[in-house]
């Protein structure tokens, strides 16, 4: 086996960020909304699950030991999506992104040969998001993690054009990782807010970027979609058909929607070897990268084993295992 094994979907918990926003009335409102959307049973499970994983989320030595056990050489570490805080006003949002970027960079700096980092941007304030990306890059981070939308704004919103432009010109990575789902109480049982909500949000967000023409206007964006891009890659035929059959569906982008999948990278975290093979068929083996959602319970403890279960050819296996991500991270 040659080349490093690279996991692009791993998280860090930043207590400093939560201490910063603690006690703010808007935080209580946001938590109440999340609780209502997720349901009480999910809250009861989430608390102990997070507490058990805090050492892996915060202690670099524990993280590295877990990576060794998984056979992972390099992690691309992004803040827990619970740190997005898209409810925050401009002053609070600036404090959040600065602290998150600096704390993530400090975490990764403890093992610079094995940890690379992503920061945060306040999508609720598009004009601030540009400064936040620049700040993340100044900290030595590879780019930023974003959710599927912000309150009242989809990723197709023209207000984000300066953010996409800066990401394109700098080569910054954008990691699309939803947090929460606006289907609300329809998903408040059986953890459907995550089980169904996350792949739905991925599909909606990617569809906005494709159908609106964002990827036409910014063809150099380096975008990684978590959770295999959700439902979109394996159901892209419906998007193509609509683009061809309806004037409204085809009005915003220049090419078949499926063609844009080959401009995006997708992590391998789909929990089914047959779905992983179909993802690779749809987007190409050169566009899939290893992802584990380390160390959360909806991730995989054995990302390489999950990849091996798909029974790929040797070249495809090694490309997904690390070759594609190493190239994204500009590592030989």
UniProtKB/TrEMBL annotation:
<dbReference type="InterPro" id="IPR006680">
    <property type="entry name" value="Amidohydro-rel"/>
</dbReference>
<dbReference type="InterPro" id="IPR032466">
    <property type="entry name" value="Metal_Hydrolase"/>
</dbReference>
<keyword id="KW-0456">Lyase</keyword>
<feature type="domain" description="Amidohydrolase-related">
    <location>
        <begin position="6"/>
        <end position="330"/>
    </location>
</feature>
<dbReference type="Pfam" id="PF04909">
    <property type="entry name" value="Amidohydro_2"/>
</dbReference>
<protein>
    <submittedName>
        <fullName>Amidohydrolase</fullName>
    </submittedName>
</protein>
<dbReference type="InterPro" id="IPR032465">
    <property type="entry name" value="ACMSD"/>
</dbReference>
């Amino acid at each position: 086996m040659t080349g490093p094994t690279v996991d692009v979907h791993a998280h860090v918990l930043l207590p400093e960020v939560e201490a910063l926003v603690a006690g703010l009335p808007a935080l209580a409102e946001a938590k109440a909304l999340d609780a209502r959307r997720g349901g009480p049973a999910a809250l009861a499970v989430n608390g102990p699950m997070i507490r058990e994983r805090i050492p892996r989320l915060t202690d670099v030595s524990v993280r590295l030991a877990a990576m060794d056990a998984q056979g992972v050489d390099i992690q691309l570490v992004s803040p827990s999506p619970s740190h997005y805080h898209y409810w925050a006003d401009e002053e609070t949002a600036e404090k959040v992104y600065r602290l998150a970027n600096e704390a993530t960079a400090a975490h990764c700096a403890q093992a610079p040969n094995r940890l690379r980092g992503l920061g945060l941007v306040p999508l609720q304030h598009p004009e601030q998001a540009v400064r936040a990306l620049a700040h993340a890059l100044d900290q030595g981070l590879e780019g930023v993690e974003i959710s599927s939308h912000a309150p009242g704004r989809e990723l197709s919103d023209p207000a984000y054009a300066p953010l996409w432009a800066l990401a394109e010109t700098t080569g910054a990575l954008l990691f699309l990782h939803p947090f929460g789902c606006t289907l609300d109480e329809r998903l408040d049982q059986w953890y459907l807010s995550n089980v169904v909500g996350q792949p739905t949000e991925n599909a909606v967000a990617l569809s906005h970027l494709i159908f609106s023409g964002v990827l036409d206007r910014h063809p150099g964006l380096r975008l990684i979609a978590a959770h295999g891009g959700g439902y979109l890659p394996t159901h892209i035929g419906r998007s193509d058909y609509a683009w061809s059959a309806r004037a409204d569906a085809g009005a915003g982008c220049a090419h078949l929607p499926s063609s844009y999948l080959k401009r995006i990278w997708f992590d391998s975290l789909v929990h089914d070897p047959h779905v992983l093979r179909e993802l690779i068929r749809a987007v190409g083996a050169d566009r899939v990268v290893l992802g584990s959602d380390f160390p959360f319970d909806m991730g995989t403890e054995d990302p390489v084993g999950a990849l091996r279960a798909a029974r790929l050819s040797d070249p495809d296996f090694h490309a997904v295992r690390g070759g594609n991500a190493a190239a994204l991270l500009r590592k030989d």
